[in-house]
Amino acid sequence: MEIVINIDDPTPVFTQLMEQIKTAVANNHLPEGTPLPSIRQLANDLEVNSKTVAKAYKLLERDNIIQSRGYRGSFVHPDAKSHCHIDLSQWTTEMLTDCIATLRAKGVTDSEIRVAFGSLMNSKF
Amino acid sequence: MEIVINIDDPTPVFTQLMEQIKTAVANNHLPEGTPLPSIRQLANDLEVNSKTVAKAYKLLERDNIIQSRGYRGSFVHPDAKSHCHIDLSQWTTEMLTDCIATLRAKGVTDSEIRVAFGSLMNSKF
DNA sequence: ATATGTACCATTACTACAGATGGTACATAT
DNA sequence: ATATGTACCATCTGTAGTAATGGTACATAT
User: Fold this and answer.
1) Pick the CATH number of A13-83 from 3.55.10.10, 1.10.10.10, 1.50.10.20, 1.10.510.10
2) Mind telling me which residue stretches traverse the membrane in this protein (chains A, B) (predicted)?
C-alpha cells in the first residue's frame, strides 16, 4: 500500500488521501478488515499534519470505507467494497445541479443564489 | 414617494431600494404605470452611485415590478401589484433549504456542500 | 444639447471560507 | 511508558465573492 501526496496538485491533501485509499479498497489492495496505518504514523510518513489525515479518515469512516476503533486503530470497513462505489460527493453534485438549474431557469441571479445559499449555510439548521 | 437609505443598516443599498419600492407598490403609493425617477436622478438624490440604483431597477424589472422603456424612463409595471407578492428570493430560499436539508440528512458535511456548490456556480451552465 | 436605460471597463473594502498547520488534552488500551 | 482515535483551542495563507464606487460609451429620443 503506497500513498503519494502531490503538493503541486491543486487537489487538497485530504482529498488525495481519500481517493487513494478508496481506490486501493476497490482494487482489492486493501481487503476488508485490513488495519490501516495510524493517523499519526501516516501523517509522519507523508510529512503532513495529523489533523489532515484525521480529516480524511473521518470522512472515509462516514462513507463506510473504513472503521475507527479508538485505541485499537483504524481498519478497512467489513463492507467497504460495497460502499466505496457509493459516491456521496457525486450525489451531492447532482442534487445541487438540479436545484441551481431550476433557480436559474426562473431568472434568479447567480449572485442572489449565492447570497441565499450563504445565509442558509450560516443559520445552522 | 420617499426613499430613505440607512447606511448604518447592514442591508445592502440596492436591497433597501428594492424593498422600499416594492412596499410602495404594494401599499398603492405607486400605482401601476407611475413613472419612477430616473436612475441618475434617484442616485443623485440619495447620494449613491447610479450603478447601485441601476442594479435595483434591473432586479425589480426582472421581478415584473417595474418596466424600463429606454430613453422614456422607468415605470411601475402594469401588473406590478400581482407580481410584488411573488417573492422570488423567498422561493429561492425554500428551494435551497430543501436541498441543503436533504444533503445534511445524508451526512454530507457543510464544507462539502459549500465546495460542491462553489464548483457548480463557477462552471457556467 | 440634454436625458433615458444600458453595457462595458475598472478598482476598492469587506467578508467568509477552505485548507493546512500546530498545540494540548482526554479516555482507553497494550 | 507508549500508542490509539478524538476533541478542543488557535493561527495563517490564499481564494473568491459581494457591495459599491467611478469612468466611458452607445442608441434613442425630446
Assistant:
1) 1.10.10.10
2) none
For A32-83, how does the pLDDT look when each residue is reduced to its tens digit (9 = 90+)? Answer: 999 999 999 999 999 999 999 999 999 999 999 999 999 999 999 999 999 9
Q: What's the per-residue H, E or C state across chain B?
A: CCCCCCCCCCCCHHHHHHHHHHHHHHCCCCCCCCEECCHHHHHHHHCCCHHHHHHHHHHHHHCCCEEECHHHCEEECCCHHHHCCCCHHHHHHHHHHHHHHHHHHCCCCHHHHHHHHHHHHHCCC
Give residue ranges of A with CB < 8 Å to any B CB.
59, 62, 88-89, 91-93, 95-97, 99-103, 106-110, 112-114, 116-117, 119-121, 125
* Cβ contacts of B107 on chain A, cutoff 8 Å: 62, 88
